[in-house]
Recover the amino acids of this structure.
């Protein structure tokens, strides 16, 4: 059963209610319930809904950190993260990410959770549904 409690148990990075209020988690879980077809996702429906929620919570948080308010503003953002670097003292580390396999995934490619969601949706054959102009359009 999809729930905020189940979500934070599965994704403990989102358990801090100060950073991720239960109301925001519930909002994105409700969106996932509306956007994902339970029949299509079958046994991995809950995992898909949780990845969907994690993606949007993280994207919302990143947008807020970039000064875009609640994430519902212009939608500009910085795009897909393709590399990162960190330094501690004299040591530094950098990593480049190959995002070419997420071409056409839209904003879902912007977070690792979104990328995992896209991977799962492609495995169950839901990827093409996003391109339909008529019908339910649900994943």
């Amino acid at each position: 059963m999809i729930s905020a409690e189940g979500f934070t148990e599965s994704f403990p990075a989102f358990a801090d209610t100060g950073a991720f209020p239960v109301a925001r988690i519930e909002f994105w879980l409700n969106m996932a319930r509306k956007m994902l077809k339970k029949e299509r996702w079958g046994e991995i429906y809950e995992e898909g809904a949780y990845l969907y929620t994690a993606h949007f919570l993280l994207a919302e948080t990143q947008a807020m950190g970039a000064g875009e308010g609640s994430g519902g503003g212009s939608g500009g953002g910085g795009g897909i993260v393709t590399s990162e670097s960190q330094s501690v003292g004299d040591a530094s580390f950098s990593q480049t990410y190959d995002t070419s396999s997420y071409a056409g995934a839209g904003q879902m490619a912007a977070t690792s959770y979104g990328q995992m969601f896209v991977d799962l949706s492609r495995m169950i054959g839901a990827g093409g549904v996003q391109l339909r102009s008529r019908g339910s359009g649900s994943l």
